[in-house]
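subagent[fold] <- orchestrator: predict structure for attached chain, return tokens only, no commentary.
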Amino acid sequence: MSAPPDDADARRAVPPVVCYPPETLPAPDLDLYRTARVAARKLGEVVVPPRDGRCFRVPAGGFFRITSVEGPQVGDLNLWAAADLGERFFSGKTRALHGTHVSVGDRLWSCLPHLRPMATIVEDTLDWYGFDEYGGGVHDVIGTRCDPYTHRLLSGGTYHHCCHSNLARALAGETGMPVTEAEHCIHDVLNVFMCTGFTRETGQYFMKASPVRPGDFIEFFAEIDLLGALSACPGGDCGATHSSDAAACHPLLVEVFEAPAAMLGGWAPPSRNLYDRSHGAG
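subagent[fold] -> orchestrator:
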């Protein structure tokens, strides 16, 4: 380690500044969404089997709910604009705008150059958890998803039911793409129900047993027409391991609802970002 300079303590004591102050973000109208939700009708549901993935579609102005139904289980969520797989969930910018873990009132943002809200969290039965003594919180946008490439790198083994592979198979089945093509569309996730943080000593990403129990759910308002994919992680509650068949795993339920247009008043899907994309090139 390099020798600290004489003013090391002073440098460390400089106060932090929030990179992206949220005060100017367009605020979701949660009261409107919740009123519309009361009148919404169920369009369908998908059960995501343990160690597998499934796709679902949600119309703009609709809702989708992810529920723990049999036992503690975390899920890895991908979202795309239904008509354009090139517009996908951007976990990094969502993290920059809302923080490492998301809950009611936070939004899932799409990638550049689109950068618009894709979905807004309207209900979360785990919002009571907050941050624990280890710095852990629920529903993170910091983990990338378990994948067979990292598993191979670290263990030398082959495992086909990592979340990356589950999502790739689900998207391939939904679109008809070969799985090797579909996996290029898989992206960093919202870790639904997962309890995670960073160790204070080394800054390493950690997981611990999720507090989720059967009946717990998180619900979203679809700001645009969505194609979603959800993996029921092979780590189960992610209290000990992942990327193997060792953990007890359970299914997850996805329900989709449609609200009457009249209940949404003057709401309309958000436009794509208005930056002109000239990048100062003249």
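orchestrator: received. Logging for downstream: The two ends are 46 Å apart (CA to CA). Helices lie at 8-12, 30-38, 91-98, 148-155, 163-175, 179-182.
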